[in-house]
Design goal:
Elements: H1 8-21, H2 23-28, H3 32-40, E1 44-47, E2 50-53, H4 54-83, H5 86-103, H6 112-135, H7 137-140, H8 146-174, H9 180-200, H10 214-229, H11 233-263, H12 271-300, H13 302-323, H14 327-355, H15 362-390, H16 393-399, H17 401-411
Antiparallel strand pairs: 1-2
Helix pairs in contact: 1-8, 1-9, 4-5, 4-6, 4-10, 4-15, 5-6, 5-9, 6-15, 8-9, 8-12, 8-14, 11-14, 11-15, 11-17, 12-13, 12-14, 13-14, 13-16, 13-17, 15-16
């Protein structure tokens, strides 16, 4: 079976998964659920007989979810590459995540330990599906279009997620809908729009015909990719840089709202509205940020553009620690985060896809990318929670500067390649 890259319908179907699943990181991890969680838990909570700060235990659960995906995704991606059924695994994690979102409806009606199972499984479903979703990028588009296609996906995600958030807010604040129904809507949205992607994406592009034990064959596929990866100097050095700066980026995205609830001096009744406004500011500016960085990378190259973005992230941490105390400060820092969030997510994915060698094992290669991102989240969120437990959330933000500085220095070590050079290089 032959497959032609750059098919507009296939690319459109692929980018629709960003539209479908981006409601999870916005509604669940960034906007409505963190506020709901703060309102339905005490500052100090008891979990499995031990006492924790509420956001501390939340960060530990998120860390655990990504640790599980870190171990699962490489093996599953090896099996997916061997059997040619990436889409099946992508569907499984999509449905796991969506059903977990729906189960958030019961969060404040059950013991905290049970509620946190929903948090754990939702996070696993979201991040697990992205391994196989991202692996489609080099299969459906040629390298010259990777930055543009990746940016289109993230942009659709920001717009779709913002639309559902606005709908949820109108229903919650205008029609007194309980916040729990927003979690159900998130799960339904994710599954419903995911069907567009599943119908449009091809299956088994390379016409693999698996025989024998898929588990052992999948493991062998993984070993083969690992051996190939060790010979790719540019790829290895880029992954080291990505791993480091991603710790800071992902941790900020997961924990920023909690900084807003604890460190910003809001007026009476202003906090919820203020946090939601700042999140929407981030989302809409991120759309422009994704396209801006794709344009900039075309001019000066991927690595230089990433270096600029990572440096801005480091400045954001310094400013947030030292100066952000009032709502207007929070809105300004949110706008800056939006500009660089869309750019760094989109460009990191497309840069990696450009560096891949000619291969049919895209899921296995992207599993290494995903493992490093998830391990970064494990380390970043763990230390964020640990430092907050010892000092305060403001010191946790300060700690993140280390990740951006080291990540910037590691980007300088990535060898120049033709695929990463811009038109002005």
């Amino acid at each position: 079976m032959s497959f032609n890259k750059n098919d507009k319908k296939v690319i459109s179907a692929w980018t629709m998964y960003d539209w479908a699943n981006s409601v999870y990181p916005l509604v669940i991890t960034s906007a409505i659920f963190p506020i709901f969680y703060e309102g339905n838990t005490n500052e100090i909570v008891t979990f499995l007989g031990l006492e924790f700060v509420n956001t501390e235990i939340y960060s530990y659960i998120i860390s655990l979810s990504y640790l599980i995906v870190t171990f699962l995704s490489p093996l599953l991606s090896g099996i997916a590459d061997y059997s040619g059924n990436k889409k099946t695994y992508m569907q499984f994690f999509c449905y796991l995540g969506a059903l977990s979102c729906i189960s958030f409806y019961f969060f404040n009606k059950v013991p905290l330990e049970l509620g946190m199972i929903s948090v754990l499984l939702g996070s696993i479903g979201f991040s697990g599906s992205l391994v196989f979703y991202n692996a489609y990028l080099p299969e459906i588009a040629t390298p010259d279009l990777h930055d543009k296609v990746s940016a289109k996906g993230y942009s659709r995600g920001y717009i779709g997620a913002s639309l559902l958030l606005i709908i949820s807010l109108v229903l919650i604040q205008g029609f007194s809908m309980p916040a729990e129904y927003a979690f159900v809507m998130t799960g339904v949205w994710w599954v419903a729009f995911g069907q567009i992607t599943f119908r449009g994406l091809p299956s088994n592009i390379y016409n693999h015909k698996p025989k024998g034990n898929r588990l052992s064959k999948g493991f062998n596929e993984l070993k083969k990719v690992w051996a190939e990866l060790k010979t790719q100097k540019s790829l290895k050095r880029y992954l080291a840089a990505f791993f480091t700066y991603s710790m800071g980026v992902q941790t900020i995205m997961l924990m920023a709202v909690f900084f807003g609830t604890k460190e910003i001096t809001w007026g009476e009744g202003e906090m919820q509205t203020g946090l939601i406004v700042s999140i929407l500011v981030i989302q809409f500016i991120a759309v422009a940020g994704a396209y801006l960085m794709a344009y900039l990378s075309k001019k000066i190259g991927n690595i230089k553009t990433l270096g600029i973005v990572v440096a801005i992230w480091a400045v954001i941490c310094v400013v947030a620690y030292a100066f952000v105390y009032t709502p207007i400060h929070f809105y300004l820092i949110a706008a800056t985060i939006g500009l660089v969030m869309g750019g760094i997510q989109s460009l990191s994915r497309s840069t990696y896809s450009k560096l891949l060698p000619e291969t049919e094992d895209h899921a296995s290669y992207f599993s290494f990318y995903d493992v490093l991102e998830k391990m970064g989240i494990v380390i970043g969120t763990f230390f964020f929670g640990f430092i907050e437990g010892m000092f305060s959330i403001r010191e946790s933000v300060l700690m993140l500067i280390v990740f951006f500085v080291i990540g910037f220095l590691l980007l300088l070590r990535v060898p120049k390649t033709e695929a990463l050079e811009g038109s002005e290089s």
